[in-house]
Design brief:
With 248 residues, this protein is α/β, with parallel strands linked by helices. It folds into two domains: 216 residues, Rossmann fold, CATH 3.40.50.360; 30 residues. The chain is 44% helix and 19% strand. It is built from nine helices and seven strands, in the order E-H-E-H-H-E-H-E-E-E-H-E-H-H-H-H. It has a five-stranded parallel sheet with strand order 2-1-3-6-7, with helices on both faces. A two-stranded antiparallel sheet has the order 4-5. Helix 1 crosses helix 7. The structure holds flavin mononucleotide (FMN).
Length: 248
């Protein structure tokens, strides 16, 4: 089974997204999946021009000749798409949205009615399949993912794919410090992600208990609040001592 992962953190391999994605991908591979990860930040992905070249002049082909061609051919061959993006301004990152805009050649301009709703017809060579959202955010509460989850669900309806699960890690900025000082706390989350990846390939689904385990609070809110504020303060102080007037 083929899987395409779209990695939407500008921090690439050093991201919290990567910490969470690795065990998930390992789990999928252990169950026999062929997984292709695209780091969107490393690729040439021009913004959509809104010119409808892909609908009218050359149906199914974008005006831009850039890396999106390879991404689209991978997506077309994949049963599972994983959108891996941190929350930026209550949604996906700009590079992820930029890529999703460029997927418009995968649908036709023509409308059809699906479940009593206007949708574009998905092109014949774009097979159906599943979408999994993997995200982390800086704030503490799980509801910070609500707008992103709704957006990805709407995207799935329009591209006619099943929204299978959202794997959400709030207070994601706690991952790296906790891995240094309290690795057991994070290991539970990483093990659950590995199991989720394996089960997704083996059964087509991710059990609710694993989804909940991945999102569970890693520390009480007041501890995160105080620790984060202290670290930001120390960061500002550190840079004050490092920066010369030339740097500024
Ligand atoms: C431009 C920007 C906007 C952000 N907006 C939000 C936000 O709306 N809500 C939130 O909880 N975290 C927000 N964050 C925090 C990130 O989600 C958080 O730092 C996350 O751990 C980054 O993940 P990454 O390392 O995978 O890139 C934002 C970060 C940046 C840089």
């Amino acid at each position: 089974m083929k899987v395409t992962v779209l990695h939407g953190s500008p921090r690439k391999e050093k991201s919290n997204t990567s910490i969470l994605l690795k065990p998930f991908v390992d789990g999928m591979k252990s169950a026999g999946a062929e997984v292709h990860v695209f780091y969107l930040k490393k690729l040439e992905i021009n913004p959509c021009r809104g010119c409808f070249y892909c609908w009218l002049k050359h149906p199914g082909e974008c005006y831009h000749r850039d890396d999106v061609r390879e991404i689209i051919s991978s997506l077309k061959e994949s049963e599972i798409w994983v959108l891996a993006t941190p929350v930026y301004v209550d949604g996906m990152t700009g590079i992820m949205k930029n890529l999703l805009d460029r997927l418009i050649p995968m649908v036709e301009p023509f409308f059809e009615m699906r479940e009593n709703h206007f949708r574009h017809i998905v092109r014949e060579d774009v097979r159906g399949g599943k979408v999994v959202l993997l995200s982390n955010c800086g704030f503490y509460e799980l509801d910070n993912f609500d707008p992103l989850v709704e957006h990805v669900k709407a995207f799935c309806k329009n591209i006619n794919r099943e929204f299978t699960a959202s794997l959400l890690r709030p207070h994601g900025e706690a991952l790296k410090p906790l891995m240094s000082f309290y690795p057991d706390l994070v290991n539970g989350v990483l093990d659950s992600l590995r199991e989720a990846g394996k089960l997704l390939i083996e059964t087509g689904n991710i059990p609710k208990e694993l989804v909940e385990e991945i999102s569970k609070p890693l520390m009480p809110p007041d501890v995160y609040f105080e620790t984060a504020n202290r670290m930001f303060k120390e960061g500002i102080e550190y840079w004050k001592t490092k920066l010369t007037s030339k740097d500024e």
